[in-house]
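Reopening this one. Same input as before:
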Amino acid sequence: MSYPTTRMRRLRGSETLRRMVCETRLSRDDLILPLFVVEGSGVREPIASMPGVFRQSVDALVAEVKRVRDAGIPAVILFGVPQAKDARGSGADAADGIVQRAVESIKAAEPDLCVMTDVCLCEYTDHGHCGIVADGDVDNDPSVERLAATALSHARAGADIVAPSDMMDGRVAAIRAALDGNAFPNVAILSYAAKFASAYYGPFRDAAESTPQFGDRRSYQMDPPNRREALREMRLDLEEGADALMVKPALPYLDLLADARREFDLPLAAYQVSGEYAMIKAAAARDWIDGDRAMDESLIAIKRAGADWIVTYAAVEVAGRLKP
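Same output, byte for byte:
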């Protein structure tokens, strides 16, 4: 039937009606907060390109996760920013490394909080690439060995989920074998399965001090035009033992997220990356947009496209606007 019998506005006339017919609901349980951990004590250093985001020492981070708990957010993901870096990223799997100490302290303070760890070498290498460099390019298989050792060290520290973000071939299988072979069969793997060589990572690289010192990451991160290849990457990581899959960035790749939702029945994550976050914050600071509404709308779009989990720097502020 058509107008005037069919009037689509009938169910939009009040807040109550709109709530009753709402098709996509964002929940606090959907949110994961990224945290940057640095050496030192009492450090809470603001990141200029990411308003409201800080580099924090372990002691400050423990106080921060209490705020996360009180906001009703179930999980955090940790990124380490060590003082010392070298060609092999030696600090990545050190038993007393920055992330390892952070995991131990957070789990001691908040044992019910889900602690995820980013598994990559870019924050730990002096060249800024995500693996071991040989002849001017990242050497896949030696890099995978280092990544598996890093994931294992995070599991030993108490991580609930390890999240490889490097995009090396075969790293999920190697990490699964390392975890299972060392009595950590219940530590889950969230694979950054479709991570694109994106222009949206700039503020993160400032925060993590991980900008490549030469070249770029296009030989291992995905080429933005490739949609079918992304699904193939996801299938391979699933076959290798991933428990959940991630699309990164989120908003520019909603089509891919929707494809993945139709294709796979395991949990899907999407990362609202630093550039996405910073653009909203920058525009809001100039009164060009309503920042709160724009942030909420962007996260609803990610949820509507099929994400079960959303990694976002806005997790705490958004949780405060959500109904329990």
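So the earlier flakiness isn't reproducible anymore. For the record, The CA atoms of residues 167 and 208 lie 18 Å apart.
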